[in-house]
Specification:
This protein has 163 residues and is of the alpha+beta class. The protein contains 4 helices and 11 strands. The protein is globular, with a radius of gyration of 19 Å. The chain binds copper (II) ion.
Length: 163
């Protein structure tokens, strides 16, 4: 009996390898454009040649009714980190936006950290790191570098403004 259970467990593990992955790796479907909750690969819908991932079927139905309303809330922003700053230096979004940061570095490894939003992305030259969050808090937030990158590291700052 025990052997059967072990066998079944191994079989299921093979079928669903994502169960064993680190939570950060597990979810790379971003946030649901309707609710801003983590999306899943089970709930996808293609619109104008682009695939969107949702957190549930109800969100897909909502999206189908007014897709542009939800798409307009997705703010994809390319951010380049460098010694010692960010381009753009100020990121301005509206409360309720889904902010997708596409982070690259011009020179050495840098980080992109917003404490209040629990974001910390690290990037090496040649990579693009994607990070998504729901801008659900209004205010001005410091963006700081979380990888020591040289003499000006402490002064490396950007700003996120959520209106
Ligand atoms: Cu840096």
């Amino acid at each position: 009996m025990k052997k059967i259970i072990i066998f079944l467990f191994l079989f299921v593990s093979l079928l669903f390898p994502e169960v064993h992955k680190h939570p950060e790796e597990k979810n790379n479907y971003g946030l649901c454009p309707v609710l801003g909750e983590p999306a899943s690969k089970e709930f996808s819908y293609e619109y104008k040649g682009k695939k969107y991932y949702f957190c549930c079927q109800e969100c897909i139905e909502k999206f189908k009714k007014t897709p542009e309303r939800y798409i307009s809330k997705i703010k994809e922003i390319n951010v380049e980190a460098f010694q010692f700053g960010y381009l753009p230096e100020v990121i301005k979004v509206k409360k309720g936006d889904i902010v997708r940061i596409m982070l690259t570095t011009r020179d050495v490894p840098h980080g992109f950290m917003i404490k209040e939003y629990d974001i910390d992305v690290k990037v090496k030259k040649g990579e693009t790191k994607e990070s998504e969050f729901l801008a659900d808090k209004k205010g001005e937030f410091d963006i700081i570098c979380s990888v020591y990158c040289g003499k000006g590291h402490g002064k490396m700052k950007g700003k996120l403004i959520v209106e």
